[in-house]
Specification:
Blueprint: E1 10-14, H1 19-31, E2 34-39, H2 45-54, E3 61-66, H3 76-79, E4 82-87, H4 99-120, E5 126-130, H5 166-183, E6 189-195, E7 197-199, H6 210-219, E8 231-236, H7 237-249, E9 255-259, E10 262-265, H8 266-277, H9 290-300, H10 306-312, H11 322-327, H12 335-348
Parallel strand pairs: 1-2, 1-4, 2-3, 4-5, 5-6, 6-9, 7-8
Antiparallel strand pairs: 8-10
Helix pairs in contact: 1-7, 4-5, 8-12
């Protein structure tokens, strides 16, 4: 599907140091776009040096701006003169102390603050929001109750809460808030990207997402006895970035877009890595029985509540990605290559020790 990137118009990317954001910025800079990159601390070389480096790699440029999700008006300066806003900033963490403070409030307040700035910035014509499949489906068991046994962009997560799947709940609240704000105006349009589990290398060279925690547990021996029987959609980070850019520049792009290549399990991810790394690292070779997880899971890891295990482990994850292919023209990448790229980068970072 053909589309044209308008290199004369500036764009804003929030959460610019994030996993997906880095690849969005890289693709835009290579196309010749001036990117306003909003970060918490533009003076932190450790976090922003890779963004500065991107300006040397293409005809476009990166201009850093200081902004904070929780501060109203924080994005006004960065957004000035921009035609498109990519709102990618939102925490994706599996371990936290306070779900309300660490996940829900930043996601919801951040979306409201960014879109409040959009309403105040007349140059903005389109917003591309990074939501998640978590806003579409909460527990895997829900798949069985959807039409045709699979979920798509018409579905909404109705089962998550602040105490059950709080990350999923945060993404649902944030996306619903975005649609409500959109409905109350008619100057700019909102297009939403709903990726499943995102894998692949980071541009910064550092682990920045909860996905890295998952691969870390596959490779460091924590799942050597067996992997939990958990299924999910998986997609390469570069495909997710491509989806964002297409959503921004394909004028007819509307609504939500479920983004994933194929369905995998934790054991399936390990199997993608075994050909290259199986003899050197303690990757799992079997799945744990659900009853054992139910019995000891909450004791070993508080993120594994018995409710979460019952409603997700051993259940079939079935989604429909046809809209992303037909309306955005996404050509999905090899997940084996994605997993190997990510795992190798983590090895290079010293994340694992060989057997």
């Amino acid at each position: 599907m053909k589309y044209t990137i308008n290199t004369k118009q500036k764009v804003l990317v929030t959460g610019a140091t994030g996993f997906v954001a880095g690849w969005i910025i890289k693709k835009l800079v290579e196309a010749g776009v001036c990117v306003h990159a909003a970060v918490r601390d533009p003076d932190s070389e450790a976090k922003v040096s890779h963004l500065k480096h991107l300006s040397q790699k293409g005809p476009g440029s990166v201009v850093l701006f200081k902004a904070d999700l929780t501060e109203a008006g924080s994005y006004d300066k960065a957004m000035k003169g921009c035609a498109t806003v990519f709102h990618t900033a939102s925490p994706f963490i599996l371990k936290f102390n306070d779900a309300q403070k660490d996940l829900i409030e930043p996601a919801l307040a951040g979306t409201k603050n960014v879109l409040s700035s959009v309403n105040a910035t007349t140059s903005v014509k389109r917003v591309v929001l990074t939501s998640s499949v978590a806003a579409i489906c909460g527990d895997t068991i829900e798949c069985a109750n959807t039409p045709n046994g699979k979920f798509d962009e018409h579905n909404w997560n109705t089962t998550s809460s602040a105490i059950h799947q709080p990350y999923y709940y945060s993404k649902t609240l944030a996306e619903r808030a975005a649609w409500k704000i959109t409905e109350d105006q008619d100057r700019w349009t909102l297009v939403v990207i709903n990726p499943a589990l995102v894998i692949g290398p980071t541009l910064s060279g550092k682990s920045t997402s909860a996905t890295h925690d998952i691969l870390r547990q596959l490779g460091d021996g924590k799942m050597k006895a067996g992997a939990p029987p958990f299924e999910f959609g998986v997609v390469d980070v570069r495909d997710v970035a491509d989806a964002h850019i297409r959503a921004a520049y394909i004028k007819r792009a509307v609504g939500r877009h479920l983004i994933f290549n194929e369905v995998q399990s934790l054991l399936g991810l390990a199997n993608l890595l075994k050909e290259k790394y199986g003899t050197a690292y303690p990757l799992p070779s079997k799945e744990l029985p659900k009853w054992l997880l139910w019995l000891v899971g909450p004791i070993v890891d508080k993120t594994f509540s018995r409710k979460m295990i019952s409603l997700n482990m051993g259940q079939k994850w079935v989604g429909d990605n046809s809209k992303s292919i037909e309306k955005l023209g996404i050509n999905y990448s090899s997940l084996k290559a994605s997993a190997e790229d990510m795992f190798q980068q983590m090895i290079d970072q010293g994340e694992f020790h060989k057997k």
